[in-house]
Amino acid sequence: MSKFDMVLGVAWYRFRVTFRRQRNGYLGIVLLVGLVGGVAMGSVAAARSTQSSFPTLLRSVDASDLGGAVSFYNPSIGFKDGYYPGLVRTIAHLPHVKNLESEVGLGLLPLGANGLPIPAANWIADGSVNGLGFDEDRLIVAHGRLPGPQRPDEFVMDSETAKLWGVHLGEVVTFGVYTNAQSVGNPGGLRPISRLTAKLVGVGTTSAENLVEDQFDADAGESQTVLFTPELTKRLLRCCAENTIIGAQVDGGDRYDSTVAAEIARVVPKDVPFSALLASTSIAKAERAIRPESIALAVFGGIAALAALVIGGQVIGRRLRQDEDDLAVLRALGAGPAMTLSDGLIGVLAAVIAGSLLAVVVAISLSPVAPLGPARPYLPTRVNFDWTVICSGVAVLVVALCGVALAVAYRAAPQRSAAQSGRPFSRGSAAARVAGSAGLPAPAVAGIRFALEPGSGRNTVPVRSAILGTVLAVVVVTATVTFGASLTTLVSHPALYGWNWDYALFNGGGDIPVQAEPLLDKDHLLSSWAGVYFGLLRIDNQQVPVMGADPGVAISPPLLSGHGFDAPNQVVLGALTLAQLHKRVGETVEVRSGGSTPTQLRIVGTATMPAFGGAGGVHMEMGSGALLDYELIPPGQRNLFDQPQPGPNAILMRTRPGASVGSVDSSINAIIVKLGGGSGGGGPSPVLGPQRPAEIISYNNLGATPALLGGALAAGAVVALGLTLVATVRRRRRDLAVLKTLGFTNGQLAATVAWQATVAVAIGTVFGAPLGVALGRSLWDLFAREINAVPDPSTPFASVALIAVGALVVANVVAAVPGRIAARTHTAHAFRTE
Predict the structure, then answer these.
(1) Nearest partner of 214 among 785, 737, 700, 782, judged by Cα
(2) Which residue from 446, 324, 401, 459 is spatially nearest to 733, judged by alpha carbons?
């Protein structure tokens, strides 16, 4: 028989004869590894499925690869119709276009009992021409269903618009039909050319792309959507189609998106500000919105995995160290290093493997919970086998925990213990000596010594690793809370994400009448206001959404560097746009629109741009966009719908300090009424609230995540502290017995353990809290710069203080159980085992 066979045979024999006595320990390893490891793998798998959920949703609705508006009704620039079938056919036959569908804006307004448009109505009704919204870019309906494409008497709409209109699912609504010429005026004083009725068959309707738009009801993931069937649309194309929007599917996916977009821009009339809405751009935006949730899940999985490894390693260590006396007997009987090293490993390694397999089951069982985020309600719930995560997770658990088992078995081998027994004892803790000299109670001095002195020989306790673990736990918890507080500050302060004004009048991408200017000048509640325009220009041959204003405008997005634009030859860029152009502040760029003559502008600063811009097209985001002279935007872009007296596309306003919200609201609403707003007649819509960018739009889903992560880590730290204290009591039974012999009462022994826990946590808090705050603020600065927000980290002093106090309280609560164990120490038994 070979030496290996002999060692394996003895180890197997020892496992069989001791299994009944040790099976609870093995079961504990299996359950710990399986449950905590399964949660870790499930969280990481959920993070992956969450991050990929939006592309999955787009595939399920047969989304277009690109789209955009290709025509408008605007006689002043030669567009006497809103729908041009020849143009649509031309685009459909461009190279690489696989399928093309379209929809038009219809001149339909819901009528009240008096036969006039209801006050909340606006020009938002769309009609599918040949299936857009029904098969390609299929709309998502929360309640009810999509209309039958051949049913002219059915339509769907979003929940917010249904609430504004006062209609409900199943109701039959009467609509007035208005011509294109009527739609640019105020239909409140005009008679519709006809009427029609249609039944609302679907509510809560939205497109996949709008799930990450912050318009009107961001928390519900909706923008205004009112869609009619192709059967009705074809009856109104000649009179009442105001604009045309296309959706194109491209051969080869996004490889030819830019090529097709350039070809469409070439064939549409030059005065049409065509901006290609790319599916790849929508996916990137959605992934930015989802990323905080997926990162949070991944971090939670990492914390759970770390807890599984740390706590699992401690359980394995205790299981193997329980056999130290047996190992000493085996060595006395002639067992060599290999035999004593392998003793007990078979059961532990088998328990680790069984626990890892249980973790796979747990992870798969948790998979139907994912994905999270805005796409979650619209994807089927199913079991997901993420083999990449499962295989990697099992490998990490098995390799790491088996490695821990081998390391502990090596350190616990009697041959190594005998070699270490001759090492000199440490001099002891200076802090314990100071505490004794200061006259602290005996339990306090003993507790400080237990917390800081590792001991030697068989009584060695890993106090340094315990303190380091406490420091790390406090650092991560405090950093998490600091990061979460900074996130809350960002979300609650719109100026930090570009919206540094108090009110904004917005006309859905149209124009606000010039009559607004004298009304605003007379409003004593406003400190300043600015009219702005939106467009899409080519800057150094890149398509960039822009905000136009007068040089030196009183209100502009918050600056990150440099200064605002003070002259017509200057421009302020978003930081991401600046990087994409490979430019620096102080350099020049070339700006043009279509075939116009290029204009040289000097970059004078960078700013956090608001998520704001022309309706239905590419708009600015925090890092992308430009602020420049509004006269660089062609008149056709500034006045899309041929208003007779066009003004700015939006008006930004700041109120005077001390002005009450109610008074300002009443004043602004009075201006809106004077301008004909709220009746669908070209006046401004009600005041538009801050539009959150994609990076923080899912904050309501993310809001509790920092607290959950901090709580999970705190729970893991509490468990680790409790296990460390229990292990300390068991390994220092002799020291406790000596103290009891010297006259310590049961209460003093328990107090000794409580002091030990308090000292360890106090050290962790003193060093960990400042480091955690610094780390959290640094991480927030990095995050804010990454998303191009104004960096303004917050320090939650009250929360940090509560963490410090709570840590000390919890430490003493956790110390209660090992304190009772210490109090029950039997001196005779402790000395006999020595």
Answers:
(1) 700
(2) 459
Give 55-110 pLDDT, tens digit per residue: 888 888 898 999 888 888 878 767 888 899 999 999 999 999 999 999 999 999 99
Give one word for 781, left, alpha or beta, with left for phi > 0 and alpha for psi -120 to 50: alpha
The two tokens of residue 507 are: 């006309």
CA distance 486 to 622: 17
DSSP string of 653-690?
EEEPTT--HHHHHHHHHHHHHHTTTTTTSSSPPSPPPP
The tokens for 606 are 């960078």
Q: Which residues of the chain have pLDDT under 50?
A: 215-222, 418-426, 457, 679-682, 829-831
Q: Find all residues with CB under 8 Å of 616, minimum gap 6, and list them.
A: 69, 245, 509
Domain-wise residue ranges, the chain: 1-60+279-420, 80-268, 429-497+693-834, 500-689
196 phi/psi in degrees, rounded to 5: -145, 160
Distance CA 581, CA 562 (A): 17
* CA distances to 136, 142, 222 from 203, in Å: 19, 6, 11
| CA distance linking residue 705 with residue 327, whole number of Å | 47
| pLDDT single digits (tens) 170-226 | 999 999 999 988 876 555 567 889 999 999 999 988 887 777 665 433 333 346 789
pLDDT of residue 606: 95
Q: What angle do CA 536, 542, 545 make, to 5 degrees?
A: 25
The residue among 541, 543, 539, 597 whose CA lies nearest residue 572 is 539
User: Is residue 509 within 8 Å of 518, Cβ to Cβ?
Assistant: no
